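The records we work with from here on pair a chain with its fold. The integers have meaning only within a learned vocabulary of local backbone shapes. A complete example follows; check for yourself that the lines match position by position.

:::
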Amino acid sequence: MKLTREFTIFLALLLLVALLPALGAYPVFVMKVMCYALFACAFNLLIGYTGLLSFGHAAFLGGGSSFRTEHRQRFAGDASMFGSAELRVPLFRFPFIVPTDVGALGFTDAGRVYVDGESPGGWHTAAGGGFWVGAVKAATNVNVLFTNRSNRRVIVSLGFAY
């Protein structure tokens, strides 16, 4: 078996981590470092095998945090830009056991991704409206959205889009 440079570095780091408690490092700190390293490896492996890209390899557009009418990571490229506008109008307040607010909302989303400085897909736009029901405070609400996209006509989400 030929030792490659990467494998040699891996063995040296593994030996260093194993010897850290003997060198005076706190055992709890060493265990936390090893747990975080194991988590990062497992997360990267899981994401890689489920079809999603690894940490920081692409700029995505889609999902609740950017372009809510498309599925998560629908568009990918080297860079992305997006904008969203939302208007919420409270309609009713029910001061029963738990204070509950009901309101209407309208929104529009726009975004695009770039690959090597060009945007082959152009601008992706969507709009819609719906209602929200919130309890106690505005951030704890359930949104029911109706969109103009054929693949996602109804979206149910929690909280604010941003």
